[in-house]
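FIELD: query
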Amino acid sequence: MTLVRRRWAHLLLGSVLCLPYYLLTLAVLVLAVPGDGGWPDPSLHLLALAVSAPLIAACEMLLDLRMLQIRAARALSVGPEALPLPPESRAVAAGAARRRTAVWNVVHLELGALAGAATVCVPPMASVLLAVPFVPGLADSLLADSALPAALAPAAGMSLLAGLLIAVAAAGSLLARLAPPLLGPTAADRLAEAERLAAGLAARSRLARELHDSVVHSLSAVASQAAAARKVLDSDPAFVRGALSAMEQTSHQALAELGTLVGLLRDGEDAQTAPAPTLADLPGLLDGSRTAGLRVRLERLDPVDRLPGPVSREGYRVVQEGLSSLLRHARDRPVRLTVAADRTELTITLENAAGTGGGSALPRPGGDPGLESVAERAALLGGAARWGTENGRWRLFARLPLQARTAPAAPDDATAG
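FIELD: result
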């Protein structure tokens, strides 16, 4: 019954909205159709209602009331689940959506006008019929020219009320059935929503990748530095002091990057964030890895000060993740690092002696989320990355084009210095 009342209210809302169109059309018809000057013929009222339909549709096409109609139908007829709101970017309806909404507007207002007229007329008529047995002389004045016996007047009144309720329930159900196809999302709305969801998934994936590649690396380095310092706590105090200093610096860096990621999660892309590390910060990264016990040698480092920002940042993360994987899997073996840049691309190579048995397990081609993120970062810039054992050595190789798809650099900034 609650649903019927809400749909009845929705129909009465349509009746109120239809009234200006109906009165304007009726006035024009009264002036255009000759008459005796009395109350217009009932057929003229129905004609006015029918002729007002094009005017209702034209106003919808002009004013774009789609969002108002959707919100009213969600609240009064079908509920939020059956009729989702369109994306904010699609708040202004396109041509196809406006045409469908115009059809809905005509049906809603015309049915509402009929339901409103019945709501106004039927209850008083039924009340009079119900009062016939209790008001002397009412039957003679009311039913004098009618074939309805006075004894059946109350039953006729109840039938009128029941018929009104059934008609209103049927009209409300019809509107509820028409709402999803006429007011529901268009193909463009669904595409916009899919794009929004894809953008959200991409943003979460990027944040997860940044969290893994920065904070996880820092924590791995701190754990390795603490383990190395513990082993020589009594025999080499100078090394322990250096390890503690490196742990402090690494922790501060991890906290700063974690704060940046938390800001992005809380405030979105507009958050004020600290600058991300680039290949210019590579010496500090290597020093921290050496303090953690990784024997890394920088064999080549081309000038990186004029690399495009995205390439330099992603290049730093590639080196960071490669060193982090080696810290976890093969800290006891020497590592060679090469960072080469020419006019078209940046290449990064990490090599580690594979060894034979008795050592730590080296990173494998699959199953390492950090190394998989290296491939994702390279792919986002239009490059590629691969890793695995070649000729007795474990090798990570990444190629990053300087003209990246995500942030193209100007010609004079696209080369290494």
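FIELD: remark
The beta strands are 296-301, 335-341, 345-353, 384-390, 393-401.
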